[in-house]
Design a protein that fits this description.
three-stranded antiparallel sheet, single chain
Length: 380
Amino acid sequence: MSIYFDNSATTAPSEGVCRAVADTMKSVYGNPSSLHRMGKAAEDLMEDCRTKVAKSLGATAEEIVFTSGGTESDNAAIIGYCRCNKRKGNRIITTKTEHPAVHEAFKQLESEGFEAVYLDVDKEGKVSLEQLRTELDKGALLVSVMHVNNETGTIQPIEEIAQMVHSAGAVLHVDAVQSYGKIRISAKKLGADLLSVSAHKVHGPKGVGALYIRKGIRIVPVIYGGGQEKGLRSSTENIPGIAGFAVAAEELTANFDTNVAAMEAVKNCLLDKISKNIENTVINTPADSTCGVLNVSFTGVKSEVLLHVLEDKGIYVSSGSACSSHKKGRSHVLTAMGVKDNIIDSAIRFSFSGDNTVEEAETVYKVLCEQIPVLRAIMR
């Protein structure tokens, strides 16, 4: 038995994606910067893929820059915009629950003289709009808010935030890595000026992502070299990865309703059974969260211990963000939400894809019913 409930960390590449990557590696191996026929074939393929990825984001091909993934997209957007436009101001705003790719970019900018503000969130992980309004009144160059939180599934009111940010004359960056494929995204409707996504979160290959840059927004590169991607992202483009990304984007769009319905059914089944039948549990995910994440604390059981017990049963989950799992310390997301330390220490994140089934959720629930009492007795 193998049940994979760690899809917020990464997803299994689809068959279509794997074929596209392999076929491209074999047949379209020219460098898209080369002037000969093989280079032109690679360039044409890349531009066709750019159009497909752009369509999945409600954008135009000219607004898409290919990157190595969500982290680079976040860094390029935040650091690239602020360095390019520092004459307009030096105050930058984000939340206390952002991904490390955003927080570390902010720390870098602080070392360069920018003033960073980290907004509070409520017990559901939602940003304080009142605090945002107060901080915007003091002036701001850029605001960065993630659409969906990777640990809890909390959805931020991006459209409302965008209106506030733009009214204050600032620019909005949205980390949409976890909402991509779970919420229909139109960068323009959201009001994002810069928006980051990653292929491997939507059954695409690792090592490739995209940054949406709204027309009229200027950034400077954070990677220097041969000037690829309109001078914004040097390095020979990952054509096989981009080909796989395009297939994932098309599949995402074609199967969106089916996948979301499947994720909702799995999440609701697991949530209902755990809430009603396993005592002393705390649901850390808010009710109006994304379909892809369920964060639960089984009090009295250390999350890392439960994670490995489930692994021994062929069930794969997470104790938090995969990107920071090797770092010591409690979840900064749950801490910012005001969750008590003992609850944080017992938190498990179940995260889903359209490939998961209700039968898998029922199996996981049964294993939890068997193992939680045993582990609580041992750890008492």
